[in-house]
Amino acid sequence: MKFRYLGNSGLKISEITYGNWLTHGSQIENDVATECVHAALDAGITTFDTADVYANTVAEQVLGDALRGQRRESLEIFTKVYFPTGPSGPNDTGLSRKHIMESVNASLKRLQTDYVDLYQAHRFDYETPLEETMQAFADVVRSGKALYIGVSEWTAEQLRAGHALAKELGFQLISNQPQYNMLWRVIEPEVVPASEELGISQIVWSPIAQGALTGKYLPGEPFPEGSRASDSEGGAWFIERYLNEDILEAVQKLKPIAEDHDLTLAQLAIAWVLQNPNVASALVGASRPGQIASNVAAAGVTLDSAAMESIDAVVGHLAQDDPALTTSPEERLT
C-alpha cells in the first residue's frame, strides 16, 4: 500500500480507501462486511469512509463493529453529514448547526470512537448560510470530535467560499469527495484547478464506474446475474448511464492496455484515477473479501503517458466533462 497526503495537511491516507456506501447494512450480511473490513486491513488499507445516511445509519454501526479492537491511532475514519437520517423530520437533514452537532455525536457513537479523522459535508446546502455551516464545523474541530473537515461534490466556487471561511475560522478544509473515473471527468475543468490552488485533495468515488469499467458487462448480452446492473435495490439506477452499447464496446477495447500492464480492467480504472496528482485516494467497496486484494493491486501503479493517451483514444470521446454536472440538491430532501 502507498500513502498520500490529504490536501495541504500532514494527514496521510492510503491510496485505496475502503468505502461502504451500498454494501454494509444492505447488500451484504454483517459477518461478510466484517470479513471485508478485515481483508482491507490485511491488505494495508488504513482509511475507511462511510456516511450517516448509508443504510440509514446502519452502515456506520457495522463499520464500527468491524473495526472494534483495532488500534485507533493506526486508522483514518471518515464519515459525512447532510442527507436525511432517522424519521426525516424538518431538522434531520442539511448542514444547519443543529443537524451537524446532533449528527456528529450520533456518528461517533455508532462508529465507537471519540473522533473521526475527517468529517465531510456530503453535499452543499443552499438553504443554510455557509457561515453557519462552517462555524459549526469549526466548533466540531475545536471540540476534538473531528480532526479535519472535507466536503463532497462541491463546485469550484463553493470550494473557494468554504475554504476562505475555514481559514478565517482557524481550521482546514482539506478534501473534496467527487465522482471521478475514465467516463466521468466533470471535476477536471474547474474543481481540480481550484483544489490545487487551495490545497484541497480529491478522494474519488466510483473509480470503476459502478462496475462498468470491469468489463463484465458485454455489449448485446444480458447483465450478469447478481451484478449491480441487475439489482434494482443495489444501485442499478446509478450505473444505467454507463451501460450503452458505445461505452460497453469501448471498455472491451481497453483490455489490451490492461494486459500490457499486467492489470485487470478494474485495476486499470483505479490506477487511472490515481495518476491525477490531485487525487489522494480512490474509494472502493466490496461485497466479498476477495475483491479487496485485487483492488489494492492498483496502488502504486504508474501508467506512462503512452498508456494514458491510449486510454483516451479509446474512451476519451465518451467521457462526460461538463463541470455544470457537479451539483448538490437544490432543496433539502425531507
UniProtKB/TrEMBL annotation:
Pfam families: Aldo_ket_red. Residues 15-314 form the NADP-dependent oxidoreductase domain. Keywords: NADP, Oxidoreductase. GO terms for cellular component: cytosol. It comes from the Bacteria. SUPFAM superfamilies: NAD(P)-linked oxidoreductase. GO terms for molecular function: oxidoreductase activity. Belongs to the shaker potassium channel beta subunit family. This is Aldo/keto reductase. It comes from Nesterenkonia salmonea. The lineage of its organism: Bacteria, Bacillati, Actinomycetota, Actinomycetes, Micrococcales.
